[in-house]
Amino acid sequence: MKSMLCQFKKVQTKPLPHILKVMNISEKKLFELFEMWINQGNITPVHPVFKELKKRRDAEIKRKRQEKQELELLKYKELRQRKYSNKQIAKEMHYPYDKLNSFLKKWYNTLRRQGLSNEAIAKELNASKNELTPIILAYEERQRMHEEMRRRRIAENKRYAKTHLKRIREDLKGPSEYFIFDTEAVQCPDELIEIAVIDCKGTTVYNSLVKPSHKINWRISSLTGITNQMVMDKPSIHQVMRDLHDLIAGKTLMSWGIDYDSVLLRKSIDSTGIDLNCKFCCAQKIHMGLVEDINQIALQRAADCDMQNHRALDDCKLVLDVLRKDIEMIDNKSAGFKQRTPAESNGGNTIFIPRSEPLAATP
């Protein structure tokens, strides 16, 4: 197995089909090897190839599960039409009799999410009113609790947005305390390859590529346009952190979805020993508070643009555009604004559009 690991490491930066061809194994076998390597500590769980394998595997499992459920429903409806009793149905479907109610509950929830009424569901499942009544009551109670949780999260996001937007407004009139930042990074291990900082007036405070200690693989290059040649003569993370300390130490840093960017910056602080002593603020949560949405919203959707470049300075400017629209929204008292519904939310998914040509880096 060590030879397989060595073989994989030689081709790990290549596309997945190429890796499978060189190693002469199936996706399933490579996934099993990854699980073993992760348990042994040879590979991290966030390795891009493993994440891609897991995504494909999960999609296949979901497809097979859906097919199985649809076949179960067809068989259930057929047995109902034959006037089988519940005990006979449970026996034919190899279900414990006491679990047949779970089957009805599962399909009731599925059909309700598809927009069917209780009458239509009863007809679809060929179930009596007595069978569905406890299921309907339980479903409505869950919906009530979900709506209550949603209201609480919206209220929390509103308070968060109100607090920070008030301070951002003050930034527009005087000295900057809030700065927007964004990062690009390699994975396994996570290392910065680019960082940009702008103030709330749109002035670029800092923008530089960073020379990592590990190579940039083709996945990151295709996503960001940043290549190994572009970072070859760029400053190290130690020099970058020293520069940032002189510029933004003690300030409040904002980014879109603060978790990833702040973790990267904290890792850089730990590795260099240069503490910026900054507070962090999430521009995404501010926007969510204004549009009254509890689901994460992709930056390109919030900015209403067709594509996202995935370069640090470009993303900073997109975040600033969204913040300006948010402030304008408040000033106009939400004139012409339509509240986002849960069905309209994209759940935080971002469409990645690889570059055909890399952008020129700004040192």
TrEMBL record:
Exonuclease domain location: 177-332
A single MF term (Gene Ontology): 3'-5' exonuclease activity
Keyword Protease applies: no
UniProt EC number: 2.7.7.7
Region (Disordered): 338-363
Keywords: Nucleotidyltransferase, Transferase
EC class: transferase
GO cellular component: cytosol
InterPro entries according to UniProt: Ribonucl_H, RNaseH-like_sf, RNaseH_sf
GO BP annotation list: DNA replication proofreading
Highest taxon above the source species: Bacteria
Record protein name field: DNA polymerase III PolC-type
Phylogenetic classification of the source organism: Bacteria, Bacillati, Bacillota, Clostridia, Eubacteriales
